[in-house]
Amino acid sequence: MSENYRKIIHIDMDAFYASVEQLDNPEFIGKPLAVGGSELRGVVAAASYEARKFGVRSALSSIQAKKLCPDLIFVPPRFDRYKEISKQIRKIFFEYTDLVEPLSLDEAYLDVTENKKGNPSATLIAQEIRKRIFDEVGLTASAGISANKFVAKIASDFNKPNGQKTVNPDDIEGFLEKLDVKKFYGVGKVTAEKMYQLGIFSGFDLRQKSKEYLEQNFGNSGLHYYEISRGIHNSEVKPNRKVKSVGAERTFNENLSSEIYLEERILNIANELEKRLKSSKISGKTITLKLKYSDFTLQTRSKTLPYFVSDKTIIADVANDLLYQERLRNSVRLLGISVHNLNNEEKPHLKLPQKSISIQLKFEF
């Protein structure tokens, strides 16, 4: 490992949506809770830890979740409330560093190599941030601390909920070699299965493979896998991380088989999408219609305009054109609209310092 290290913290809120609901509704505390869906329809967006013990997780159908946990309580999502809480948490982050890269409402990277508190220990900073989130917001968070984003993200899962793990620079390779490759951030289910078939089960197995072998079997991703198995990940924390798309979708209580009924839903979704685009002060050229049929197959249809749009009327008109582009394959259970090709190109700005500190044996994590 190089002697020049960053100090990166990955903060991940614990069961964020469900925890907010339990915070606002004390009667839900200690009970299995699912955000999103209902007993008869829909998909779970988030599950409390009490529900996870039964195997309930995000993206699981509500019907299956109810079978796994008969006492499961369903509540509708309140994204405005989650955003409000997220802003409170990010305000705490910025008291320590300006190098904050949000990944979603409930997680972010922080580079505290140089920080506003002058604290040389990233471990102690993470402890302090987690305590402040609990004291000031009322929620628990977990953290991973290491010399790069990749290892910090993996580490934040180790002592969940309400814990943290530090992986010092000299311990990174030993930490990674013991992990199942499916635990590697960015290695999805399909890739993990392919690695298993090739006899690659752990980080240690992955590190035994040459760069050429990995490129031959995994194409352009081969170099990435070669480097991360050695703890090499040089991506900086990017405080101005660009949004690549904005979308909204709805799961229906009953499957819809007529385009006429779907037109009404398109207008409602376009209205919500306009609010999200305008609140972010962005617009886009490419509009995508997403259809999930009753047999759970997915279909997307897209159209790119010669100009940027954020107006709900235009979005709905284009979505309707896409709806009638071809006949429906089946009845529809979910409809979504997203806007891509956004106008949020980075503007010239004063670049924040992104320095590393050269410290050897006395480097504090």
Question: What report would you give on this structure?
Answer:
The two termini are about 15 Å apart. The model is unreliable at about 345-365 (pLDDT under 50). The protein is globular, with a radius of gyration of 23 Å. The protein is an alpha+beta fold and about 375 residues long. The chain is built from 13 helices and 14 strands. A hairpin with a 4-residue loop joins strand 11 and strand 12. Among the domains are: about 15-80, MutS, DNA mismatch repair protein, domain I, CATH 3.40.1170; about 170-235, 5' to 3' exonuclease, C-terminal subdomain (DNA polymerase, domain 1); about 245-340, 2-Layer Sandwich (Dna Ligase, domain 1), CATH 3.30.1490.
Alpha carbon gap, first and last residue: 15 Å
The percentage helix is: 25-40%
Derived structural class: alpha+beta
**Helix tally?**
13
The CATH homologous superfamily name of the domain at 246-342 equals DNA polymerase, Y-family, little finger domain
Low-confidence stretches: 346-363
Oligomer: single chain
The CATH architecture term of the domain at 246-342 is: 2-Layer Sandwich
Radius of gyration: 23 Å
| CATH topology (fold) name of the domain at 246-342 | Dna Ligase, domain 1
Largest sheet: 5 strands, mixed
